[in-house]
Structure formats: C-alpha cells, structure tokens
Amino acid sequence: MSLRGVIKGSGSALPRRAVSNAEMTTMVDTTDEWIVERTGIRNRYIAGEGETTASLATEAARQALASAGIDAARVDLIVLATATPDQTFPATATIVQHNLGCNGGIAFDVAAVCSGFLYAMATADSMLRTGMAKCALVIGAETFSRILDWEDRTTCVLFGDGAGAIVLEAQDVDEADPLAPGIIATRLHADGAHNDLLYVDGGPSTTGTVGKLRMRGREVFRHAVTNLSSVLKEVLETTGHDAAEIDWVVPHQANLRILDATARKLGLPAEKVIVTVDRHANTSAASVPLAYDTAVQDGRIKPGNLVMFEAMGGGFTWGACLARV
C-alpha cells in the first residue's frame, strides 16, 4: 500500500458576462465564420467589475469542496495555477485560503500558463504522497481578458476567463491494482527556447507593466500537436496502459484543430475527447479543470473511469497525467 492523490470532487466558476462571436464582431474586425473555422470557438466569458482571479478561484474551490463533501477546515494545501494573479504578490492562493477560512496550511501559486493546472496537480500529488499534506485544493483560475490586446483580432478572440478546481486527498491504495483510484503518473516538460512564440510583453522586472499577450499561432499549433502526442505516449508507456483503455481525454482547450490532430496521432476516437473550447474558449490554466468539471456534471465522466489530462502552454511547457477518478 502507498499514498496517492485521489480526486474526491470538482467545481468550476465562470464570470457573469458571456460574449458570443457575434458580439466579438462588434468589437474587432472579425467574423463568426473566421473564428469557428480556425478555432471551434463560439463563446467565451469575460470578467467584469468585482470579478477577479481570486473570486473565481474561490467559487470553484467551494463547489469542489461541496462536491467532495469535505469541509474547508480539512484543507491543508492549496496550489493555484494562474498567469493572471490578483497581485504580483502575495500569491492568489493565499487570498483563496483566507476566503475559505482554512488559514495556516500551505498555499502558493504555480506559473506554467496553460499547462499550469497539470504542474499544480503534480505538485500537490507529490506533497500528498510524501505526507506534507493530507487534503489539497488544486485550482486553475484566470482573468486572461485583462492581458489581451483588444485591437489584435488574431488573439483577443481566442481567450476567456474562468476557474476550475479539484479536491485531492491522500489515500492508501494498492498500486498493483489497475483499478485503484488516484493519480497514476504525470510527466511534465518545458523548453524555454520558444519564448518568442507565446508570451506577454511585460513584467515587473522588465517593463514595470503587466503587458499584453503576443502569439505566433501557426508555430504554436505545430509544436502543440507534436509535444502533446509525445507526452501522452510517454505517460502510457510509463504506466503500461494502452490508449484504447482510456475512457476520456481532458485536454487543454486551446483550439479544436489541435484537439482533433492530437487524438488522431494517438488513434483515439474524437468521441473520447472532452471538448468545451466552443463555449469557454481558451481559459489557460483554468481550461483543464473547467472541462473536467463540465464532463463530471453532465455525467460523461463517471467514478472508476480512466482519464488522461493533457496541456501545453507558453514557455513552452507541456505535460500529461493519467488518473483513475
């Protein structure tokens, strides 16, 4: 028997304002057809006054705790993935911790952009396995709309705001049992050589400003398909599982064409891929947990399912995680 992080519940939160492609055409020179054809996106949510990364993260966390039937007082670890924190410091995770009333445990942010939730989940799982904590909230939350250049029609139509969370609890399991619940294996990577393909052109140490998102979409697409298919195969080889055994793939929701191309490379049917990019757009670190919770809520993902999580983001960073939920 050994300790493993087991997913006990999930939750999500979206801003009040939904923005359709039709509304986007009144803001920038674009069309619904152009957006849908290239990305699959039809809608996104944009944070308004009083809505922040911390407020969305707090709501997602509360829903996850309710789903798990766990009181916030039991949470002794919060790992929050975000590229859009409320403040440069302190960590947005500490704001969420205070909002939930579980002060005194471990709380910190992780910055790995769209791969952030995978990095956060792996970090939390490692800390649970070593006994540093017993019950963790892993959150991905973003207000990406606040770092977009709203005059750049090639990028501003792609992103949205939101948050997703899961509760991970340390549980003794028989690792030799293929049906044992929890996180089975995670593989993470980064390659800083591609900084200029997807980045924000500001920061406290360089410009003293927040900056705006910049992206060379065609090059990012090419790297995404290659890197994601590679890391998914790596996780399968590590665990001894076959792609056919996977019940669901929960990918980062960046672009429908990336999701389709990655599935084809693995020989996975499109029906096994959770797709929410059409309704939420790219919510960066929030996209994986937001998609997961959507599929749990609508009944697609059920207890006992074998689920593969995967993401790639600026840095480049990328990773995949296999879990029995």
Distance between the amino and carboxyl termini: 18 Å
CA-atom Rg in angstroms: 18 Å
CATH architecture of the largest domain: 3-Layer(aba) Sandwich
CATH class categorisation of the largest domain: Alpha Beta
Q: Give the strand line-up of the largest sheet.
A: 1-7-6-4-5
CATH superfamily of the largest domain: Thiolase/Chalcone synthase
Structural class category: alpha/beta
Q: Could you say what the CATH topology of the largest domain is called?
A: Peroxisomal Thiolase, Chain A, domain 1
Percentage of residues in helical conformation:
25-40%
Mean pLDDT: 96
Shape: globular
Q: Give the uncertain stretches in residue-range form.
A: none
Write down the domain tally: 2
Amount of beta strand? 25-35%
Largest sheet, if any?
5 strands, mixed
Order of helices and strands: EEHHEHEHEHEHEEEEHEHHHEE
> What is the count of helical runs?
10
Strand count: 13
